[in-house]
Design goal:
The chain is of the alpha/beta class and 451 residues long. The protein has 19 helices and 12 strands. It binds iron/sulfur cluster. The site of iron/sulfur cluster (SF4) has 14 residues, from helix 4, helix 5 and helix 8.
Length: 451
């Protein structure tokens, strides 16, 4: 079958046809495609046509990585427009697909995974205990569904939406998920198990791929502030862990003195070797392990008491373990900084390949965006092989229809977001709307600005 046979709209643009053919070649024979095509040209639907028309469609699963929930649901909507009769779903993170009220207080995705694991292990999540309803699961077979639809059915049935989505992943041909499911090594292993496929059998799509390098670097980076260390010390004291609290207090004082020697009364940032901040500790790796154990008990105690399940000791433990492991690795920057009398340790990764290079073992990948050029730079930055095909698609909009103008005196910069500024922006927009003899679409810096 040719990709264009699945195209659901009246007219295929030449750029869409070019993308369909290039993507089909890569999907059929394996490899990597990097595409830049203008926003609004219909890249998603063109790519889906290539994916579903391939004779190999039953041999691989598609993981469609997006940045926002809206983009994930958009993939599902396009599949519906194509009348695709495949099991496909859009996913959210654990916190967004959880009905347990305790999860509302969890501050981050990684802590959500830990709290959920504890609740399940100790038999304390009623929604998890009721899992395994094949009747409900079958409702979602052979059709594309959004995470929102899964959530509302699970609310009705009092089942864990996340667990149900996980079971559905095993059946699905396509899953639209956040970048983290593929990029974050701590999430990827479990995710591959849930979808029941090896990396080598996946076709991975990165939508808005210009975000990939920064997201990959962020995943491998972390920060520990002096406040966070003080709170970890307090947790250890409250847990009666005298030795742990003594060691951490000693480390805190050592770091405080070290920052004082470097910065004095001033603020600043200094690149370190890494090992010098461990001098204040006897056995850093063992300390990290002990902090993790105590942190887990604290998490559980808080869960039982119905309090926000968070532990500063757990964060300190994972940060310290990574700091120790990364000493001497040139991909990591070890930074000490001081701001407003607070010091922070920061682990920063500049080279995204530390995260991305493993994923290119997949069967095929497509990275696409409206702003990716120069494509060679993207390919090299994320560590794609030199054989990756690079494709720049022309704009479907005639040049004479494009007019770029800039105006002075308005900004959406955070500190200027005041009623007077919005009033000025509205006046400028009103002027444009009056002058343009057709409909006007307005794109803003964020939903906050739009509202
Ligand atoms: S099992 Fe489901 S409902 Fe229970 S805590 Fe985990 S994600 Fe939430």
């Amino acid at each position: 079958m040719q990709p264009e046979e699945l195209f659901p709209y009246p007219e295929i643009r030449p750029a869409q046809l070019e993308l369909m053919r290039a993507a089909r070649e890569i999907i059929d024979s394996g490899g990597h495609l990097v595409v830049e095509g203008p926003t609004g040209m219909g890249k998603t639907v063109a790519l889906l046509c290539s994916l579903l028309s391939s004779p190999r469609v039953d041999e691989y699963k598609v993981v469609y990585c997006c940045r926002t929930h809206k983009q994930m649901d958009r993939v599902i909507e396009e599949l519906r427009a194509m009348k695709a009769r495949i099991t496909a779903l859009s996913m959210r993170g654990k916190r967004e697909m959880c009905l347990n009220r305790l999860m509302r207080f969890v501050p981050s995705a990684s802590e959500a995974a830990q709290v959920c694991a504890i609740l399940k292990r100790r038999g304390k999540c009623e929604f998890f205990e009721r899992r395994g309803s094949s009747r409900v699961l079958r409702e979602f077979f052979d059709r594309p569904v959004t995470a929102g639809e899964i959530l509302s059915v699970c609310r009705r049935e009092e089942l864990c939406p996340y667990e149900l989505a996980k079971e559905l992943l095993g059946e699905a041909r396509l899953a639209a998920v956040s970048y983290l499911y593929i990029l974050d090594p701590s999430i990827r292993g479990g995710f591959l198990q849930e979808i029941g496929e090896r990396l080598e059998n996946l076709v991975i799509v990165f939508d808005e791929a210009h975000n990939l390098p920064a997201t990959a670097s962020e995943i491998a980076s972390d920060r520990l502030t002096s406040t966070s260390i003080s709170l970890a010390v307090r947790e250890a004291e409250e847990a009666g862990e005298k030795k742990l609290s003594r060691e951490l207090t000693g480390w805190f004082r050592f770091l405080q003195g070290f920052a004082g020697e470097i910065f004095g009364e001033k603020e600043g940032e200094k690149l370190l070797e890494g090992r010098e901040v461990l001098n204040g500790l006897e056995a850093p790796a063992e300390l990290a392990e002990r902090a993790e154990e105590v942190g887990e008990n604290i998490l559980w105690k808080r869960v039982e008491e119905g309090r926000a399940p968070r532990s500063h000791l757990r964060h300190l433990s994972s940060f310290l373990a990574l700091w120790v492991e990364s000493c001497g690795m040139e991909e990591y920057l070890h930074i000490l900084s001081k701001r407003r009398a607070q010091f922070s340790l920061e682990l920063s990764v500049l080279d995204p390949r530390i995260i991305t290079q493993e994923i290119w073992d997949c069967w095929a990948s497509v990275s696409m965006s409206g702003t990716l050029a120069p494509l060679e730079a993207y390919r090299d930055l994320v560590g794609l092989p030199s054989t990756a095909r690079l494709l720049e698609l022309p704009s479907p909009f005639p040049e004479e229809n494009v007019l770029c103008l800039a105006t002075e005196g308005v900004t959406t910069k955070e500190e200027f977001r005041l009623p007077q500024m919005y009033q000025k922006i509205n006046e400028k927009l009103a002027e444009i709307c009056e002058e343009v003899p057709a409909n006007v679409g307005i794109f803003t810096a964020s939903y906050e600005v739009l509202r």
